[in-house]
Amino acid sequence: MSNKIQMKIEDEIDRRYEYCEEHTSREADYLHEIYRQTYLKALAPRMLSGHLQGRLLGFLSRIINPGLILEIGTFTAYATLCLAEGLQDKGKLITIEGNDEYEAIIRKHIDSSPFADNIDLRIGNALEIIPKLDMVFDLVFIDAKKLDYPVYYELVLKKVKKGGVIILDNVLWSNKVLDLEIHQDERTLTLHRLNQKLSRDERVESIILPMRDGLNILRKK
Ligand SMILES: C[S@@+](CC[C@H](N)C(=O)[O-])C[C@H]1O[C@@H](n2cnc3c(N)ncnc32)[C@H](O)[C@@H]1O
User: Fold this and answer.
1) Could you tell me which residues are beta bridge partners of residue 165?
2) Residue of 95, 110, 130, 143 with the most ligand 1 atoms within 8 Å of its CB, for mutation
3) Ligand 1 atom closest to Cα of 148?
4) Pairing between β-strand 204-209 and β-strand 160-169 as defined by DSSP bridges
5) Tens of pLDDT along 58-87?
């Protein structure tokens, strides 16, 4: 494909994304402020889910109306607070963040929201924390270390109720999974192999949405 055609396609995708964002419900003011602060101060702000994906997470959570949610990878708590929108009144959301430098900012953002009493932040390595969680989740959002996605998946599947939902972020990995002859790095291969496995895994139904960096949405059978 010529560079000119490639650029035209990318321009169309950007315009579609902007159109969708402009014609989607607004995010709450405290979410917009987290977005703004993250882009002003954080080193890798693109890790944050953002408006359109955040609205989808909030929407799905409201439909599921979970009693218990698990998030793996908090960053600045943007997605955390979107997921919390659908919680039952006394519902809980456990969110795990491995980088303790984010702790103060995460707590500040959680406290600026209506969900401060529902959120339980755990600082530490998700691979060590998840096996100790003795509970059954209705909804799980996986968004931490890409090389560990296959392990997170197996760990959380055991702890999700029948009919429960698992969402994995970044499964298209900047579209690198589409060109495996060019992209042979470990992260791309790990995500591609996991997408392949999940599409055939009899324990779940799966659908990949080409939203932002790709969301793989699973329902446990
Ligand atoms: C993509 S960001 C999360 C973005 C956030 N979920 C959102 O959508 O706004 C990934 C986060 O996972 C954290 N992380 C990476 N490996 C981890 C691990 N093993 N345990 C816990 N957190 C981890 C990183 O420090 C980073 O803050």
Assistant:
1) 139, 219
2) 143
3) 19
4) unpaired
5) 999 999 999 999 999 999 999 999 999 999
